[in-house]
Amino acid sequence: MVEMGGGGTALATFTLYVCGVLALAWFANRLLKRRSFLSEYFLGGRSLGVWAFALTFAATSASGGSFTGFPSKIYSHGWVLALWIGSYMVVPICLMGLLGKRFNQVARKSGAITVPDVFRDRFESPAFGLLATGLIVFFMAFNLIAQFKAGSLILQTLLAGTASFHGLAADLGSAVGGGAMGLSSGVDPEYLLCLLVFGTIVIVYTVYGGFHAVVWTDVMQGIVMVSGVMIMLPLALHQAGGLESVTKQMGAMTPPRLGVAAIEWSSPSERERIVAAGSWGWLDGDPNTGRLLRVARSAVLSPGDTRVAGVRVVELTTPGQIDRVAFDRATNWLPIGTRLTRAQVRPYAYGDGVEGTYVSGPGPSASDPQGFLPLSLAFSFFVMWAIAGTGQPGNYVRLMAFRDSRTLRHSIATVTIYYSLIYFPLILIFCCARVLLPGMEAESDRIMPAMVIFLTENAGLAWLGGLVVAAPFAAVMSTVDSFLLMISSALVRDIYQHNLRPDADEVRIRRFSYAATLVVGVAAVIGAVDPPRFLQDIIVYTGSGLAACFLGPTVFALYWPRVNTVGAMSGMIAGFGAHLAMYIAGAFVNGSFFRPVRIFDLDPILVGLTVSFAAIWLVTRWTARPPPDLVHRYFLAGTGTTTQTSAQ
Amino acid sequence: MRHPDQERDADPNWDSTFLNTRREALIIFAVWVATLLWAVPFSYLHGYDTGAVIDTVWGIPSWVFWGIATPWVAASVFALWFSLRGMADDDLGSTPDDEDG
Question: How far apart are CA A607 and CA A598, in angstroms?
Fold first, then answer.
């Protein structure tokens, strides 16, 4: 198999991409000098046209999960991911059409710049604004740290084949190891270097350019993302021998076995030795055992030792895959004089030894005896992507920023086509990856960049690797910048301006906005130094938690004149509490916070949404009607700042 | 003054954008329900525990082709038509002058 790493050419292409991002930030900053600062910095003056709105919406919604977690899951579980992601067929029209036009109208009527502004003004309740601010900061902060980690890991894979990168990382490692940065020596210096580079790029352009920079870079990143997928698709299908062949081979696959083994050297060494992740070896060095293992984490042998125990390995169980690796001249074998011994591997909880498990539901699972996607979860995810996705405050900000109804309508059409060009092709590409890159189950988070580099190098297009691997990097970046700006806007607008210094002039607000964005960004980088585990779990928890809090209050605030402040606030708190309770119960019942309790096997988001909607309806019915002037302002014609015109 | 809820039928002054967006939201929600009822049961009935040998259409497992890809195309065609022809071009209004205040 091909060694990962993009090399200098890929790095140069990627550097050009970053320069483009920074140039856009510089242009965006020039706009800030012309108009009202807060509206421009945090909302782009509500002036987004079709392409800007469509691509910033699509790029922000896509997130790192789409280009790291999703490919990883396709690789790990096979064709059943088509059902897992199935509701993306209606995600664009749901996310933009269910609330978009009305949310934009209400935000204009109230003059809201931030999402908490909308709730504060719609209900004339500063307490509601603060509650929304607190929840956004709570969830977004966790998500931001997870996204920083994702971006850093992608960059690390891209730079893995670059000598100057390793040298620089080694220097940084020495500084860290010496305590020069006040960090523990356990931090991976290559990861740390990538985190610093990624963090610096995102923070600089977001702080400097504000919302316009975020939108323009999103547009560029959106183009890079779809281009990356469109380039990868034919390369993957061609190199894997066509889709028919891929599906047939997947039908014959059985899940691998994951576990640990020892690596033994024939003689001790006076210097440190490393066996790189991705190396292959026969158990006990003997092909006659028929047991082929892949080293999933690099192993380091200390001077004087001859054995490293506890090395994570993956053992292939499909004869066709074993032959493919064994007879591939590009396979990266263990160094001579080294062998894998004492393997302790465990079978998958579902699908072990069963052919066809990668082409049918519920899909193989290493840990769940019900399989990856039992019917209840398939239903849950159909709700989660399309309906819970509608309740994401990160999307609300975009919905406040488009110019007019025509922009929204054309953007829905654009994003519908855009998502169709990304998500279904991703399934095809990473089904091909199962055939082309066997044995990566233990490091499947890296499958996207690994596949990019494999495909482009095999095709003799290494220079393209930098551009294509920028696709997942762009997806993470476009999400991080939006979350960063959202947290800082909550601090500036909803806490500082509304509650601490209502009389602050524009110069002071401008300085505070820059400072808040910078501080939030730096704090997130520091939080990601010791990288949190469970990247995808954190993203799922925060995304579904935000929906449980915000979707109910938003729907009722926009479409039900009868709803009152106490009802809507009750729904937000009840949604938060019910969703969190499932996770806390999971910590006690299942032993991990990220293995929540599932009532009737349904995802906690369904519990959160049900409780939230029910709480709003019941509490509103039991309490007083809202003030008539508030209802008139937001629901009757000829009030507020909106004028009624003809409908198409 | 009666509350707007009580005078819905009598009061012709509901904001047209409110009425249009609510109608459009209900239609979109119905489309989501329709895709849910197509994709999930079909995929479950035809795509779960099928064994190693499965039918394919253009290299795609047939349960994915008919249960996911086909409704995906249908939903996309509807979304294009609805967004370009079915949704109203409502005036969203302007913002108060003193946004920063």
Answer: 9
